[in-house]
Amino acid sequence: MASTNPIQFIQQVRSEVAKVVWPTRREVLLTTVMVFIMAALTAVFFALVDLAIRSGLQGVLSLF
After folding, report:
1. In this predicted structure, what is the pLDDT of residue 3?
2. Helix, strand or coil for residue 5?
3. pLDDT digits (tens, 9 = 90+) for 41-63
4. CB under 8 Å, gap of 24 or more: what pairs does 55-64 form?
5. What gap in Å lies between CA 42 and CA 39, rounded to an integer?
6. Which residues contact 12 (CB under 8 A, 6 or more apart)?
7. What string of H, E and C letters represents the secondary structure of 16-60?
C-alpha cells in the first residue's frame, strides 16, 4: 500500500468532494416530508394490527 503525504491526501479529498452532487433545498424538503408521511402511515398500520390482534386474543381468551 503506497503512502501519500498529507498535501496529496488533502488534494485527493478535495477532488473527490468536488464530484459529489449535493441535493437541492427542495429535494431535501420533499424527501423529509415523505419520510414523515411514511413513518405516520407505518405507525397507523401497526396500531391497527395491534388493535386487531388484541381484540382477537381477548375474544379467544374470553371463551376460557
Report:
1. 77
2. coil
3. 999 999 999 999 999 999 999 98
4. none
5. 5
6. 4
7. HHHCCCCCCHHHHHHHHHHHHHHHHHHHHHHHHHHHHHHHHHHHH
Q: Are 12 and 4 in contact (CB under 8 A)?
A: yes
Q: How many CB atoms lie within 10 A of CB 50?
A: 10
Cα–Cα distance, 42 to 62 (Å, whole number): 30
Q: Is 9 helix (H, G, I), strand (E, B) or coil?
A: helix
State the DSSP code for 63: T
pLDDT in tens, 30-39: 999 999 999 9
**In the block, residue with C-alpha cell 405507525:** 43
Which set of grid coordinates corresponds to residue 23?
A: 441535493
Decide: pTM greater than 0.85: no
Question: Which triple of cell numbers denotes residue 17?
Answer: 468532494
